[in-house]
Amino acid sequence: MNIKNKVTLLIIFMCFLASLGQAQSHKDDVVPERKKAIDSLALEKVRDLSKYISIVGDKSTPFSEANRVIDRASELFSTDAEIGVSSLINKEIKYYSVKKYFERLMALNYDKVKIDWYDIQYISDLQKQPDGKYVGVITIYQRFEGSIGDGLKYKDVTKKDITIFVEKKKAQIGGRMIEFWDVLLGDIRVTETKP
Question: CATH number, domain at 58?
Answer without folding.
Answer: 3.10.450
